[in-house]
Amino acid sequence: MARPEPAAPEPAAPEPAAPELAAAIADFLEYLRVERQLSAHTRDGYGRHLHAMAGQLAELRLTRWRELAVAQVRGLATRMHKRGLSPRSIAAQLSALRSFCDWLILKGELSANPAKGVGAPKQGRPLPKNLDVDELHQLMNLDESDPLAVRDRAIMELLYSSGLRLDELVGLNLGDVQFAERQLRVIGKGNKERILPVGRMALEWLEKWLAVRNELAGPDEPALFVSQQRRRISHRSVQLRLAKRGQQQALSSHVHPHKLRHSFATHMLESSGDLRAVQELLGHADLATTQIYTHLDFQHLAKAYDQAHPRAKRRKEEE
Questions:
Q1: Is 46 assigned a catalytic role?
Q2: Which residues is 194 bridged to in the sheet?
Q3: Which of 33, 189, 194, 208 is catalytic?
């Protein structure tokens, strides 16, 4: 019998904000849903960041967004830093505030964006860490007799096969997989659709999962991947399951959905050298976002250089 999945922890309640501040945030989140068509996961992130900052502004006796000034935004950044938030977390909160203030300008509540001139503490941009091929084989070695293991293997194979974001994976429905064409229909950021190829192993494990899916899925559930609660699997459940599988398989590093996406991008770039193709597969609007994956292993680069560069080849011939 499969063990029950761990329940997702309840998020910490934000500090209470002044009613007018909270009402404007609610209107902004509705704008993101209707006009921007952002996912619920993304909207939740905006909501958490904005409510956290609104609570701190209420402590500073600010009750209306039109009163927000650059000095107060700088004060928010300083308070977050003193509370021990990482530069990445501070940057995320300030980014949410900038987007929110741009919307307030459109609404006529602000004449300028007070958050635009305020930056987070400098942070090094960490290179994405990926699993090598041997680690991937080790991770995927699961018990086929357990329906949850079959589901988890199908999830991991698909993440690695097609380089999906977590939100894209969770949003997949049964009709999005086209087995005959070996393709997958994905709705990415900004509600943009793209068609991705699916590898042989991922298709094989998707078929195995569909053979046992009815043991877990409700009769009218359209989601491709479901939980033991017989409904669409949550973002948090996927994260917990992958972390658990990595521990069970004795991998030395923490396994999470983006690590499989990083592995896909790195291995594709190492094999093809086609940055534009990898950009399309990942669904990146900007090529600069994809260029972080060009941190190829130096030995791989040195070998490619020796094989391809005219001067390198000539030098080797002369030796």
A1: no
A2: 186
A3: 189
